[in-house]
Amino acid sequence: MARLVLSECSGLAPVRRLRAGRGAIAARSPPALSAAPRRRPASASIHRDWALRVSAPTRLASAAVEEDKPSAAPGQEEGAAAGGEFDPGAPPPFGLAEIRAAIPKHCWVKDPWRSMSYVLRDVAVVLGLAAAAARLDSWLVWPLYWAAQGTMFWALFVLGHDCGHGSFSNNPKLNSVVGHILHSSILVPYHGWRISHRTHHQNHGHVEKDESWHPLPERLYKSLDFMTRKLRFTMPFPLLAFPLYLFARSPGKSGSHFNPGSDLFQPTEKNDIITSTASWLAMVGVLAGLTFLMGPVPMLKLYGVPYLVFVAWLDMVTYLHHHGHEDKLPWYRGKEWSYLRGGLTTLDRDYGWINNIHHDIGTHVIHHLFPQIPHYHLIEATEAAKPVLGKYYKEPKNSGALPWHLFRVLAQSLKQDHYVSHTGDVVYYQAESKTSTSAQKSD
Length: 443
Description:
This protein is mainly alpha-helical and 443 residues long. The chain has one domain (101-432). Helices cover 45% and strands 5% of the residues. It has 16 helices and seven strands. It starts with a strand and ends with a helix. The model is unreliable at 1-76 and 437-443 (pLDDT under 50). One of its GO terms (biological process) is lipid metabolic process. It comes from Zea mays. The chain crosses the membrane at residues 231-248, 273-293. InterPro entries: FA_desaturase_dom, FAS_N, Fatty_acid_desaturase.
């Protein structure tokens, strides 16, 4: 197994090889077929010493990478199960180093001037939309304004998200200043969210350790009261979950993104959390002052409703990049999990015209594997990596001008993806039967 080091611009480079032992594959749920024993990646913890304090590790320990495997033998399909069908839960026949080698070197280069140009563009659009809507003040305009401005708030969030990853620039002070301005303006605590998002990237695809829309084990799911399940799995409530998540996280986890003493954070990160919480409170004060000057109804129209549209964007995009594929995707525990295998369960999505507006965040697989690649290089990097990824890359369904099809995908997934088994190291989502749902409701 190769131990790799992620540099700021050049990505991953092999340092040395270790050999992992062989072990039997854990029993898995459908749709995977029974498979012959195969090599199991070793496990270890990821280093917590991050350059730029970004959301993704700058050093990946041996658990975070797959062994550099040889190409499959002639006639042997990658990820093949016993019956010859592709098994998405099988260890891939390639490693991170092979994916990285396929990506052009210039894709790793961050241009702070180019990054700032996107910030200036988006801020200008946000101010222009607000000025135009306030001047026209027509109920024919307000719904269009809410949709457009909420989408632009989401675009601002994505740029702040890039600051948190260090893909905005190589300057940590610039990343922090811009990230705080962008995220505080839309009521997101920059460092608090950045650190929990780092946890998400470190543990993507892990049942217990993932942070964003992770699966609920069956026992935990069935212990939830009816109303909690209703709010988590019934539209439109999941699209409004982000503010609650910031204050209380997900079922089965505790902690607040605003509290420096939360178990989300290390003691050394206390000052970061205090800074972000203070910035968030300052924005709340600005909004309160504007509400006093302008009145609650104008502020609701100018800021409140667009904020809710932004929250819906964030929840929908985050969910759909890890759920809702036409084939069931695996989630992992224990020694079956690795950084590579977890990252390969993520999904790219096509958002039509909005791809450019929200900075190609739909190009998500390569972002998860190599989060320091700037957003403006993600499409090129993905195309270069596809031949290596093979069937482990799930091609997104093409969208029209607007991604209306994704609402159907979201609704269907929320009906089917309820929980995973509380046993097994490779598991798949299962749906609760209507009978058990009715029984609990009657209780």
